Amino acid sequence: MAPPGARSATTPTLSQLKWVLLLTLLALLWRTITTRSPFFLIPPVPSLKPPHTCRVYHQPLLSCASFTALPSSPLLLLSCGELWVFDPTAPETPPRLVVFTSLDATRDFRLGDVVAVSAAGAGEYRVFAVNHAEGGGRVEVLDLDLDLSSAEARHVATIRHPAIHSPHGIAALNASAFFYTNDFAFAGSGSGSGRAGVVAEALTAAPGGSLGLAVLTPEGAEVTTVARLAAAKGVAVDTRGNKVYAVSAVKGVYAFSYDPANPALTMSKPEFLRTAVLGENLVFSEESGELFLSGGTSLRGLLGGEEEKVAVEQAGRESITARLVKDGKPRDFANAGLRREEWRWESVFADDGSFYGDVSTGAVLKAGGAFVATASRQRGVLVCRDVPIRHDDEKLQEEQTLGRDEL
User: Fold this and answer.
1) Are the beta carbons of 318 and 377 closer than 8 angstroms?
2) Is 207 a residue whose pLDDT tops 90?
3) Quick one: which H or E segment has residue 193?
4) InterPro entries of this UniProt entry (predicted)?
């Protein structure tokens, strides 16, 4: 018998359940909105105004998706369908084509992101390259050997695994392990339903992408998924600070800490760095200790009117490269549309598409060095002898971001 004054148990009514469901959906919707990139609040990107020291070199090179610095060397390895060795300190010098000593390595070989680490000998590097092959996404393992006159790569292994189904970004932990990202859960399917699934993932910011770690073994690789992300794109590793950065194109950058003794099982809850940029690729400079994010700044080129679409096709899409600022919260174009407490970025390059545009990978690889960028939909390699930080446009940036720093 219930004590006097006790409340009797009641079954929730259908109306009450509907209210609970509605409030839950509203809470989830609010959380999604407040963590997404505010691309509709970003003002148009200004054009690259002279004077500047930027120039596009070697325009026969088409669709250079990314590049990686060769450790202990001024050289870069460009991924432009094929691999090219490029010297940004002497950009006029023609890049060298990497020749594969294994003919099998060139079959069904469609290079995407690429990363290199030092190998045993001088001038030798272990290279991991994303291969968007017709037979399915995979990662190629190569050994690159440079001498004074040539560049040769020996194909070591092809890593195929169900967990590596739509690879986009890749970053080396060491010569026998790498982090990778899958962008969408439905990206591996070329069917109409697969494409519809990708669109649904992007619109809803559903975590269909992933961040994973692969460790090479004699049989292939041991692969572990360490995080689920929405529209996962670039990834970068700070091996000195034991951090992994992964970008969600529709949200921002996630920073994970790990124990180098067991990275896959010690990944921390990530720090979230919201971005105004619809991120494509990340570059971490070991020399300067800086993280660079490149990507588009709006959907105007895709959702605008016909005149705007034609202009985008004739030139390039708006793009920006920004670096993560460790101290201070700058009022900068790269923070447009973000809340003040989220101001963590500083632009180093911005283009409305009229000069180069559509930068997919960009970085200043050493303090006082040149700014280098590549674009997956453009020709050539962009090199700026001086970092084009837009100090002359600070007043314009303040006017553009004023009133847009909070949602």
Assistant:
1) no
2) no
3) helix 192-204
4) 6-blade_b-propeller_TolB-like, Serum_paraoxonase/arylesterase
- Tell me if 56 sits within 8 A of 382, measured CB to CB: yes
**Is 194 within 8 Å of 188 (Cβ atoms)?**
yes
CATH number for 50-401: choose from 1.10.10.10, 2.120.10.30, 3.60.21.10, 1.25.40.10: 2.120.10.30
Parallel, antiparallel, or unpaired for β 99-100 and 151-159?
parallel
Residues in CB range of 148: below 8 A, 6 or more apart: none
Say if residues 339 and 41 touch (Cβ distance below 8 Å).
no
Q: What is the pLDDT of residue 198?
A: 64
- Cβ distance 371 to 388 under 8 Å? yes
- The pLDDT confidence band at residue 4, using thresholds 50, 70 and 90, is low
Residue-range domain boundaries for the chain: 50-401
Distances (CA, A) of 30 to 24, 34, 152, 395: 10, 6, 52, 33
| CA separation for the pair 92, 89 (Å, rounded) | 9
Q: Are 102 and 172 in contact (CB under 8 A)?
A: no
Determine the pLDDT at residue 27.
63
Query: Residue for token digits 């070591």?
Result: 156
Dump pLDDT digits (tens) for 268-287.
889 999 998 889 999 999 98
Q: In 3-state terms, what secondary structure has residue 325?
A: coil
Average pLDDT over residues 324-342: 83
Mean pLDDT of the 225-243 span = 94
Contacts of 62 (CB under 8 A, 6+ apart): 80, 81, 379
Count of all residues that appear for the chain in the document: 407
Q: Alpha-carbon Rg of the chain, whole angstroms?
A: 23
Cross-strand bridge partners of residue 117: 126
